[in-house]
Design goal:
Radius of gyration: 41 Å
Number of strands: 0
Number of helices: 3
Largest sheet: none
Shape: elongated
Strand content: under 5%
Order of helices and strands: HHH
Structural class: mainly alpha
Distance between the termini: 85 Å
Helix content: 55-70%
């Protein structure tokens, strides 16, 4: 069987045309201007960090002596002291958190 030279020529011309389009598209893409990337401007605001001391009553340790109760009355007194210490410590923590929120609002965080 004999192949006609027309089919080989057609195949070569299609390949040449495809290669030509690839070369032209690469050349054109190299010519397109790229946008310049600029870094954002850094603005420094002078300021002073000032730390304030917490009031002494807010930093007082919540210590309580634990005694081994020998009676139901002793157990009740121990329970009452522990509850009072817990309420006092919880109040201190709540006040510290409130001051923290106020300071954030003041500096605009």
């Amino acid at each position: 069987m004999h192949r006609s030279s027309g089919s080989i020529g057609t195949h070569c011309s299609r390949l040449t045309a495809l290669l030509g389009m690839v070369v032209v598209s690469l050349a054109l893409s190299a010519c397109t201007p790229t946008s310049k990337v600029t870094a954002p401007e850094v603005i420094e605001i002078p300021g002073e960090t000032k730390y304030l001391d917490l009031p002494a009553e807010m930093t007082r340790r919540c210590l309580i002596s634990i005694e081994k109760p020998t009676t139901n009355g002793g157990l009740k007194r121990q329970w009452d002291r522990l509850q009072a210490a817990l309420v006092r410590c919880d109040g201190q923590i709540q006040e510290i958190l409130r001051l923290q929120d106020v300071s954030r609002e003041t500096i605009g965080e």
